[in-house]
What does this fold into?
Amino acid sequence: MNVLITGAAGGLGRALAAECGRRGYNLFLTDVNEDGLHCIQRGLERQFGVTVTTQTCDLTNAESVDKMLEVIDRYNIRFDILLNIAGLDFEGGFMGREREKVVKIVLLNDAATLRITHAILERRRPGRHFTIVFVSSLASMFPMPLKATYAASKRFLLDFATSLRQELKNQDANVLALCPGGMVTTKEAMEGIAAQGFWGDATTNPLEVVARKTLDRALGGKGIYVPGGLNQMLSFFGKIVPRSLVASVVYRRWNYAQSKWLESPVENCHEL
It folds into this structure.
């Protein structure tokens, strides 16, 4: 199989690249981190003997994406799986962040994901089943004061994945929305998990386990995956509890956590 992974240089993207390599899949990896891409490329080729191609790309920039697509078309690379992992968040309240940083969350998490998905669907391998994974979040299940833009951007991905799954059902394709809780992807992410105390630890998902089970479920035709029993329970209650009450509870939790954590603005750029 040929797999394209965005946000492949770190966190969940790296874990999924390793899982794909373990399964013998050929990989096309993209990220803004050129050094990180080269590092993971060498490791995967040495460990698993698979073909790994890398291309630095800023998915929020249409010209950068077009240059990557030119490389793909030059070598007539066609894909069986697209793993949309790239994403970011800037922690803190809406008015506590710079305007363009708030906008950038939506540009990468949503607009850039649509851009690459549309392009790679046009470059799927003919006559083969096609699989797409979108990384949403447990946060997509709730209104999230102090993480409002991030949670809303992930809700968009959840709804879009559900809709696109229906559109592609008769085209031999499957779409899965991954909705994890916390994941240990960056130093800032670890600090955020620690600041939440019990709830941070209890809702955190091991990267390697999430990567393996995400691929298993996506290839098995599933439409949504919420890792962890507690997270599945929380997602259920998020559907039945009044959203205004959820927003109040979430605000108290995050206000307490961020008051301990964010002494100064922290750029928390991680794949969730």
Remarks:
- DSSP finds ten helices and eleven strands in the chain.
- Residues 2-268 form a domain with the Rossmann fold fold (CATH 3.40.50.720).
